[in-house]
Amino acid sequence: MAHLKQQFKDALSSIEPSDDKTNAPEAHRLVRDALEADAKLTEYGVSPVLIGSYKRNVSIKRIKDVDVFVRLPDMPSDVTSKDILDKFFAVLHAEFGTDSDGHRRTKRQDRSLQVSFPEYDLYVDAVPARPHWDGETWEIPQKGDENEWVRTNPEGLTSLSSEMNAAHDGYYVPTVKLLRQTRRAQLGKKKPGGFFFELATYQAFASGAVSGSDQAEYYVSALTKVSKILENFVTYGIGVNDPTLAGATIHIRASDEELEAARTRFADAAISADDALAQEDEGKAALAFQKLLGKNGDDKTVFPMPPGFNEDGSKRASAILAGARVVPAGTRTFG
Amino acid sequence: MSLTEYDDYVAYSRQHFEEGLIRGGFTESDAGWRGPISHSGRATEVLITLRSRFPFQPPRVVPTELDLVPWSWHRELNGSLCLIAEDDHDGLWWTEASEFVEHITAWFEQADAGWPDDRPDLDLDRYFDPSEDARVYLYDDLAQHRNGFVRFRPAKNDVMRIGTGTRPAKASKHSKDRFGYVADLGEVAAPPRTWEDISALIDPAVDLDRRIRDHAVAVLVLIYRRGAHDGAIALDVWPTTAGGIAVRRLRSGADTNAAREARAGILAPALRDHRVAIVGVGALGSFVADTLVRSGVRHLTLVDTDVVMPGNLVRHLVGPEAVGLTKGKAVKDHLVARADIQGSDIQVIDDNISSGDAAVELLQNHDLVVNATADFATTALLHVAAKSLGARVLSAAFQNDGATYRIDVLPPLDGATPHPPSALNAERSTAEVFEAGCGSPISPTPPYAVIEAAAVTVRHALGLLTNSPLHPAGEVRTIATSPQGDEL
């Protein structure tokens, strides 16, 4: 059994966003200021709030997207989703214009407006939201429709995340990060994305099936359960819950091919992680975790080898078995 | 080992050990690794901490509830378990957590069983913090002071020596003497750790509390028994401002023949009455004499007419103060001054063994004659005399410019074949050195070879004296291959 406490700690710090941590709030502030400066939107009671993985502290190196949830509590009900997206485009394009290559920095998307920040190499997604009739949740524009809205509660997820983290001695958030990193290493740019895995991890934790007494046990336990959730999703179409909206499941865009690949890769990953945890040789275990977690956004290997081992997982020749004879043999020595 | 390898070794050992602890159900806390040790049908939670010198120092193990585990001779002052004897450092075996945890389990099982077949370590010192008084308190035979008052007087080198006496009523403030009491605790089942523990073991009639408060007793010597062994410890005791009595341990030790002889080896008592003559107390013979005395021989005859010269000193037992003395007298003076031997036990003969009568007398009056003259004529004389008497001579010498030493039993025991001549196959590469006069060149034998050969000679001598000879003919050994060359 290899728990590799220090190496998990090192892996987590290797996937921790670095410069993005300063740039993301700055980009967010610029978008927020632009929206709040508009008279019409002010009339709608504009109140942007940061959401997404960055806000929930589960993002990993590198952060590419920062989500801003723009609450408009006083927007009249006759303003359509198209109207408000048009309005956002007008305000943001007027503010951010074009980049040095002459491309518009503001891009229209199905549910939001994306503003690029080439100097930071990241994007801010501004999502307009109007109150749902229940007064507690929100509605955001739905894809492809003139005036269709879909219910959401992103801030709810932020607080649920913190609660889950506290309930598990601070192991939930780092485990989500490790699962997101595993997704990135195993699936690359293919879908499902990090959000799906985050919510699958939340569901796994919420089911009570994830436990452990250290990071290694949490990681392996969560990976095993998430791979089952993915299996059920792909094979039986059992949805992944949106924990902020009772009875709702999340929608993802992934092809059948992508889903099948994800299912296989994660099933293999779960077996490999389980074997690594049971492995008595720390070098072999580290090699397995290394393969699962791949490289970070800076192209650096995430999971380091423990001391005393070569990069291929073999024991270093200079050393060094614990308990190896470093004292000449014999009993009752005397000098 | 480069520093990188060293760091790698330490980091690996530490992580490997911790991995093992995790496997054993231990979890890390701020204070260390907590986990259960199962023994005798129950479990006791312990805290394991890796000290800064790990893996070169075993981890410390303390029960999390200090008083739930019985206090015994197998716990340290701080409550940690005494798991590894100082002499048990074979291979740093504790770096494997599973073995270490097994060892802790065995400790608990032994404790549950009341420590049967216990090793009687006598080390009450471990259970008290050290005093700031760094002087060494020496005591003689404590039986004569048992349950009596004593006085420690300052001596050279910050030593305090014990004597009899109580503090005078009008003691001078300037007196540097310290007064104390010797208490016999008898058999001590569990080591005392506080003044209260000690006080409970001493006859209340002595009224030690009051005497300490009155500063009539400042040093408390405790004598105690553990199994068949006696132990002693000296403690610094003083009244505290809070009304209690503080106890710290003093650095103390026995200044007795028994303490010295305990370290002379197991043969020492058997050697006490043997008589040994050493013919020739030059380099080899002087160290033979010294080692024999240290090993327990108390009756020596030293035969040599030669005088100590400055050039001898580097390979001889004695120092510059002996230059000008005959070698026999010089060695005798050295032994009497530094070893536990009386002058009357050493006879010095400032004469050569040049007649059969002298040889016979020497052989008849001694249990063993060691010939360290390296003189062919003397060796032959002693050999023939020994043969005709049915006695034995142990003859030791260097050959081949110090590259070989040979120790011969003359004549060999039980008609054994003598060792063949020693010879080396290389030409001498350095010029020989002569001092003035008509003699042989100076031997280039190095001092370490002299001391080694002397030790081996004594080993054979003791074998002959105790009727367990190492070899019927002796031993020949080449100790240098350069520049003199290899053995033929």
UniProtKB/TrEMBL annotation, chain A:
Keyword check for Phosphoprotein: no
Record keyword Cell wall biogenesis/degradation present: no
GO aspect biological process, one term: defense response to virus
GO molecular function ontology, one term from the record: nucleotidyltransferase activity
Region (Disordered): 1-25
TM stretches of this protein: none
Keywords annotated in UniProt: Antiviral defense
Domain of life: Bacteria
Record-linked InterPro entries: NT_2-5OAS_ClassI-CCAase, NT_sf
Protein name, per record: Nucleotidyltransferase
Species for this entry: Neomicrococcus aestuarii
From TrEMBL, chain B:
Record-annotated THIF-type NAD/FAD binding fold domain positions: 270-411
Statement: the UniProt record of this protein carries the keyword Zinc: no
Molecular functions (GO terms): hydroxymethylbilane synthase activity; nucleotidyltransferase activity; tRNA threonylcarbamoyladenosine dehydratase; ubiquitin-like modifier activating enzyme activity
Assigned keywords, A-Z: Nucleotidyltransferase, Transferase
Alphabetical GO biological process terms: cyclic threonylcarbamoyladenosine biosynthetic process; tetrapyrrole biosynthetic process
UniProt entry tagged with the keyword Calcium: no
Protein name: Molybdopterin/thiamine biosynthesis adenylyltransferase
